[in-house]
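Sequence only, no structure available. Ideas?
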Amino acid sequence: MKDKKRKNMKKRKLSIIFILTIMTGMISCSPKIVGTWTINKFENGTPSEQGYSLSNIGTITFHKNGSGEKNINYSVLGTSHTDLFPFKWTAADAAITIVGDSTEFSKTWIIISNKRNYQQWKSTSGNTIQVLELKKN
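Reply:
I predicted one. Tokens follow.
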């Protein structure tokens, strides 16, 4: 009887440790991204054609609860683009996914550099390669 209780206690402890480990892992992915970031550079191009590179096109804000807002304005070849839409986000070890409106920022981005005050992300879609460089405000 005592052995059965010990086994159950051990299983509970292991379950609690496992859950805490998973929660810690999930939490550790997101603190660096929470806050407001300036989009220092936005590049869009293909390997075979010249693309464009834009500087200081706006800000993107990530909240702890997985929501956020964009305040992005830029012009390419005389066409203005504005993105003021809210979004939801999730982060994993090497990727961040932005879900919401149908702008070109709503997708999964591969995190190339993940520092406290600097982020570099890359995304591909077909032949198109996009790069974002973010600086924390």
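The beta strands are 35-46, 49-55, 58-62, 67-76, 79-83, 86-91, 95-100, 108-114, 118-125, 128-136.
Hope that gets you unstuck.
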